[in-house]
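Lab notebook: predicted structure, single chain.

Context: the supervisor wants predicted structures on file for every construct in the current expression panel, including those that have not yet been purified. This is the next one on the list. No modifications to the sequence; it matches the entry in the shared construct table.
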Amino acid sequence: MHSRHTLVFLFTFLLFFHAAWAEKPPTVRSIQFLGNSHIQDARLSEQMNTREKTFIQRLMFWKSSPIFNQVLLEDDLNRIKSFYARNGFPGIGIQQKTSFVRNGKRAAIEIQISEGKPVKVGDIEWTKISDSITATILRNALEDFPLKQGQIFRDHSIFEAENNVLKSFSDQGYPLAHISRDLKLDKDTSYAHIHFSVKPGHLIHFGDIHISGDSLVPESYIRQNITLTPGAIFSMKEMNKTQMKLGSLDLFRYVTVRAQTDSLIRNQAPVIIRVSELPRWSVRAGAGYGTEDKQRLSLNLMRRSFLGGARKLILSAKHSYYEPIDVSLKFIQPNFPFERIDMSVSPFYLHQKERSFEVFKTGAGITFQHAMKGRSSVWLNLGIERNRIEDRSKDGDFLDLEDLILLNNKASITVGTLIDKGNDLFDPTRGFKISSQLTLMGPSLISDYSYGKFMIDGSRYLSLGSGLTFATRLKTGFIMPLGKSEVTPIEDRFLAGGANSLRGWARNRISPVDDEGNQLGGDTMLETGVELRIPVYEIFGAALFMEAGNVWREAFKYDLQNLRYDVGAGLRIKTPIGPARIDVATPVFEGKPEPQLFITIGHAF
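Prediction complete. Output recorded below exactly as produced.
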């Protein structure tokens, strides 16, 4: 009897399971586009609500696939037609075929597209303006007019071209300018002829400036950093400049600058500036691991509006294997002694370990930095420091240290520049970046060493299409004694190798050595490299790279016949603070490969 009940239960369960499975709607297996030569698959997929699983979603096999719905798919096809029409292909034809596999439970969707002949931009004409001032504004704006005859007629290109002209008027006192257009399509030639007409409106000036928001920063200080002047000719460019300047003070969570062009008083537009202040105190702490630094700890404590205004006081403390103690206190005074020049005073203490020696450094510096256009800058630093050098060699008898001043005082002046023309701060695909610095140490009256040190580091980024980026780097430097000094301090010499250097070697392993294998450091350094960055899927990428370089003991003694070479490959994962990077590299032409593994954040160059 018990067995009979068990069989009945199993039979009932199987019938129920089969019925439930049979009622389950089909899911999307794949979506394939055919015949689309002008618009990529990814952009067409963005127009659809019907989606197939992404690569990451396929790895999560326990999650079900998107449900297939024919009504939803038909709506998607209409959206694709509209998208094509907005991009210059009004005669598009679409045929869709769906094949069901796995007993009708999986839908393979094939979308065949016949793009047809595109509509192109024909003649472009503008109605003449009688007023000489506004006619000049229009004439200057049309010199860089992006719309050209023969281009495919795309709606967004028309809007962008019109906005460029309106921006020129808005920057020169005419924020109420309006553009109308008349289109005539020649069906025989598929050319759209466009006639534009612009109405400038009245000349507008800035009115009274009002400041509001939750901020304890004195209004007088905010007004000191406003570039707008009541009564001046209206300029959207000046409004943006004021917003950027107030935002750069790092005092506010947000800043908005709005002109009330709908509330004109005698052709003057009142300006409303709203600010929301950031917390006066902020604390950031971090912990991580890298193959070079091992465990990494950091603490950053900031006091905004220190002593009033935009002054800041920043306490920074870091710990890693090679820098067990790195502590600094920085006071920043913006716009001193001149506008757009920031002064900072920073005492510090640093304990740094190398293979053959370690340095205990105490000092302070005063820096004047001038921010130029974009992310470029130039700076001047005056520094003093006291260094204590200790022997870390294997036998405890590092003979080269006997010729050095192991407890020394140094004073320096350094000039540095950064020219950053990359299109992205963390992951550039176009442009270039060059940094350089020149240090003069001495004179002997206040410094135990006198030397000159120069270093320059340049990178170039080329977009090869399809998401590929080709990056190149050239970095070189030299240091030479000056005056009565006969040698350079070992703690300031060049070393190479590591995650951001020649990746075929561990950190700072490339160096001239003595007979015992102790690192001496060099007075001349050269590094160069190329890297191909390859998109793989969504946030994932890969890289192939090759590098060469070396460090030589004497200044200006480049021996290009004695370069060290490495090759490697890596994985990239995009993050908001730059790509997470896993690189494996090995020296070449040096016998048995000895791979090095690096895990860190940010590109090597």
